[in-house]
Write a structure and sequence with these properties.
CATH architecture of chain B: Up-down Bundle
Low-confidence stretches of chain A: none
Pfam family, one (chain A): FeS_assembly_P
Order of helices and strands of chain A: HEEHEHEEEE
Oligomer: heterodimer
Shape of chain B: globular
Mean pLDDT of chain B: 96
Helix content of chain B: 55-70%
CATH topology of the largest domain in chain A: GMP Synthetase, Chain A, domain 3
Low-confidence stretches of chain B: none
Number of helices of chain B: 10
Structural class of chain A: alpha/beta
Order of helices and strands of chain B: HHHHHHHHHH
Protein name (chain A): Ring-1,2-phenylacetyl-CoA epoxidase subunit PaaD
Strand content of chain B: under 5%
Shape of chain A: elongated
Structural class of chain B: mainly alpha
CATH architecture of the largest domain in chain A: 2-Layer Sandwich
Domain PaaD zinc beta ribbon (chain A): 122-160
Number of domains of chain A: 2
Number of strands of chain A: 7
InterPro entries (chain A): Fe-S_Maturation_MIP18, FSCA_dom_sf, MIP18-like, PaaD-like, Zn_ribbon_PaaD
Largest interface: A-B, 26 and 30 residues
Domain MIP18 family-like (chain A): 8-73
CATH superfamily of the largest domain in chain A: Fe-S cluster assembly (FSCA)
Chain lengths: 163, 252
């Protein structure tokens, strides 16, 4: 094993792989990476999509492959982890702050079943008001819902909570 | 475990999602308001994605064929989708009511698969459960709003329910191998899912003041699970597979 072939270097490379739809969040911020291992001098990265039908998944998989291979010079295998499933608690606090600054409301914290009321009064990422309502549970991408702020008059998107 | 029975269960689930996904995508650009255009397009994307995930389970765990070829090159008689999903999009009330009845059926089916002894289905159910919640939230909100709106709105929703209900009961057409699947704890069988579905839709319909037809007084639209389809399926399959059939071996 040469000096570059370390788990730390793989993580450093993953920090640079951004979501194509939300370019301020890396695949690590999004909680899409479920395992990183080195076996027989090959990096093996397991990942999960946020939503099952996410059309960006193959693109992201390829970007991870290129980024880690480029940074470490080692062979890389990126596979979809079927045993894990994504839920909004996988987003770190730092990731939620980055989302807010990007103009997308982060998912609220919830336990158990998602109910309609949980999507009400989502704080507006522009003015912070909770005087908002859900316009549609479907937005520009599968992972986003659309809300309206009655105080500042802005339509805004939210990263959907998923349990 | 009865592999053929599991494979048939997966095929009917996937075919329903593939065909309704394509039907729902026909609303892209035509929705009555922008949000609904996006909602039906998003649900179409989800459904086609779920169909792919199911066909992949057959390919990876059961020696099944390539998902694209299976989805787009099969003759209509080998499809196991129910008649509900084959129907043209019609007017918005019809599509909305179909979406409500179908997605509640999906919700009870995947909920039951959380306990499946067949691990790939159990894992997929865990993944899709949270996503499906958004489909039923969307459907319930519109059924309530349009049902409570009175006048023409109420009449059209009731008429759509009367049309869709016998078709939707066809989702739960009993399968030949249901008992084997129940015995192996793959899923609880169509009869159980049907009863749970009736309970769930009834709760929403009552709040919307819509009258659910008497299940004993209607004839469910059966046949789809055994390859007997409406005349609407064949033209849809021709359109869905038109590009792939130009050159099935082409690399994209």
């Amino acid at each position: 094993m040469t000096a570059d072939h370390t788990i730390a270097n793989i993580y450093a490379a993953l920090e640079q792989v951004m979501d194509p739809e939300i370019p301020v969040l890396s695949v690590l911020d999004l909680g899409m990476i479920t395992a990183v291992t080195i076996e027989d001098d090959t990096a093996h990265i397991k990942m999960i999509p946020t939503f099952a039908a996410c059309p960006a998944i193959n693109f992201i998989q390829q970007r991870i492959q290129e980024a880690v291979a480029g940074a470490t010079g080692m062979p890389v295998r990126v596979t979809i982890d079927k045993e894990a499933h994504w839920h909004s608690k996988r987003l770190s606090e730092a990731a939620k702050e980055k989302l807010r600054n990007f103009g997308i409301a982060p998912p609220g914290i919830h336990e158990g079943e998602l109910r309609a009321e949980m999507l009400m009064n989502t704080p507006c990422p522009h003015c912070g008001s909770k005087n908002t309502y859900l316009r549609s549970p479907f937005g520009a991408t599968l992972c986003r819902a659309v809300h309206y702020c009655k105080d500042c008059g802005m339509v805004f998107e939210q990263f959907k909570p998923v349990g | 475990m009865n592999q053929q029975a599991i494979s048939d269960l997966i095929t009917k689930m996937a075919d329903d999602e593939l065909v309704l996904g394509h039907r729902n995508s026909e609303w892209t650009g035509l929705g009555p308001v922008m949000e609904e255009d996006i909602a039906f397009s998003s649900m179409a994307q989800d459904q086609i994605g779920h169909a792919l995930a199911l066909y992949r389970i057959q390919e990876e765990h059961m020696g099944g064929p390539d998902p694209d070829a299976f989805a787009f090159l099969r003759p209509a008689a080998e499809f196991k989708c129910c008649h509900l999903v084959e129907m043209p999009i019609g007017s918005y009330d019809f599509s909305l009511m179909r979406h409500f009845l179908f997605d509640h059926a999906e919700a009870v089916r995947y909920e039951s698969l959380l306990q499946s002894e067949f691990a790939p289905l159990q894992q997929l159910a865990r993944k899709l459960k949270g996503e499906l919640k958004y489909h039923t939230l969307h459907a319930d909100a519109w059924i309530l709003q349009l049902g409570r709106a009175g006048g023409e709105s109420y009449e059209r929703m009731q008429a759509a329910l009367d049309t869709c209900f016998p078709l939707a009961c066809g989702i739960f057409e009993p399968g030949e191998a249901d008992q084997a699947l129940i015995n192996d704890n793959i899923y609880p069988g169509e009869k159980v899912l049907y009863e749970r579905w009736l309970d769930n839709i009834y709760r929403v319909l009552v709040k919307a003041s819509l009258n659910m037809p008497d299940p004993a007084a209607i004839t469910p639209a059966y046949g789809g699970r055994y390859g007997q389809h409406t005349p609407h399926l064949q033209p849809l399959l021709e359109e869905m597979g038109a590009v792939l059939r130009l050159d099935p071996a082409a690399r994209w």
